[in-house]
Amino acid sequence: MRLSGFFFFSMTMMLLANKALANDFDYHSAFKCNGQEKFTWYCEEEKKKPVKKAPAPKPSPVKTAKKPVEEPTPLTEEQKDLAEFERIKKTLKEKRKIAYVNPTNKNMKDYISYQNFVTKKAAVFTDKWKRVIWQDPTLDYSQKFPVAKIAKTTNLEQRDKAKMAAFQKLKQEGYGIFFFYRSGCEYCKAMASPMQYFQSFSKMDVLPITIDGVKDEELFPGSIVDHGQAHKLHVTQTPSIFLVNPKTRKIVPIAYGWVSVNDLEKRIFVLTNTKPGENY
C-alpha cells in the first residue's frame, strides 16, 4: 500500500514538472506576432480594411400638388375693340408694303380692296360723329366757335365788345403800352399805323421808347429816350411791345417783331382776360 501511494505521488510530481518545464520553454518569441517574425518591439495591429458603407438611399422625390391651370381672363369689349383696331392697321400696312414692293395685279387689287374697306369704316365713323354732336350741344365745338358766316359774324361782334370792355378796364387799372423801337428799323416804322389804330380803339396810352437815342416824332410822337427800361425788360430786338402797369409794376410781354392790330388786340385780351385753353 505504501509503495502504491509513493508511486502515484511520484508520477504526479513528474507530470507537473514536465508541464512546468514545457511552460518555461514553450513561449512566444518577442520577435514573433501570431507566429510571424516581426522586427519590432511590439506587435502591430493589422490595418482594418475600411468598411464600405452602403449608399444612402436616394430621397424619394417630393410630390408637389399640381396647381390648377388658370383659365385666361376673357377680354373686355374695349380690349377686343383695341385688338381689332391694331389688326386692321397692321393688315393695311402689310398689304400696302407688299403691293409697293411687288405691284402685281393681284397684290394691287388686294391692297385697294382692303383700303376701300378701311375708308368705308372711316366714313361710318365720321357720319356717326356728326349724328352724336347734333344730338348733344355740349359736344358741339361750333356752338362756341361757329363756322357758318352769319353765326361767325355775330360771334366776332360779341368778342369785339368783350375786348373793348377789357381794354377799358385795363386803362382804369392804370395799364399802358411800352413800344420799343430804333432808328433805321423798317419793321418798327411799319408798326406805326397799327399802334395808332390800337391807341384810338382801346383808349390806352402808348409810350414810344427809342433804344438808340434817335427819336422819330413824325411816326411816333411823344417818344422818349431809353433810360434803362430796355435793359430791365431784356429787350434785344425791335419792335418790342409790353403791357405795363406803373402802379402795380406788373409787366406783360405782348409781342417781339411786327404784328397786325388784330393780333395785338387778341394777344392783350387773351393774356389778361382768359385762362389757358378757354378759347379753344
How would you concisely characterize the structure shown here?
The protein is α/β, with parallel strands linked by helices. It has 8 helices and 7 strands, in the order αββαααβααββαββα. Among the domains are: 79-130; 171-273, Glutaredoxin (3-Layer(aba) Sandwich), CATH 3.40.30.10.
Any overview of this molecule?
Residues 1-22 form the signal peptide. By secondary structure, the protein is an alpha/beta fold. The chain is built from eight helices and seven strands. 49% of the residues lie in helices and 11% in strands. Strand 6 (240-245) and strand 7 form a beta hairpin. Helix 2 packs antiparallel against helix 3 (105-135). It is elongated and about 120 Å long. The relative contact order is 0.06.
Shape: elongated
CATH topology of the domain at 171-273: Glutaredoxin
Give the helix level as a range of percent.
40-55%
Largest sheet: 5 strands, mixed
Mean pLDDT: 83
Please, what is the CATH homologous superfamily of the domain at 171-273?
Glutaredoxin
> What order do the strands of the largest sheet run in, or round the barrel if closed?
5-4-3-6-7
Helix and strand pattern = HEEHHHEHHEEHEEH
Distance between the termini: 160 Å
CATH architecture of the domain at 171-273: 3-Layer(aba) Sandwich
Number of helices: 8
Low-pLDDT sequence parts: 5-9, 19-27, 38-42
Q: Give the helix/strand class.
A: alpha/beta
Number of DSSP-assigned strands = 7
Indicate the proportion of strand residues. 5-15%
CATH class of the domain at 171-273: Alpha Beta
Question: If you compute it from the alpha carbons, what radius of gyration comes out, rounded to the nearest whole angstrom?
Answer: 58 Å
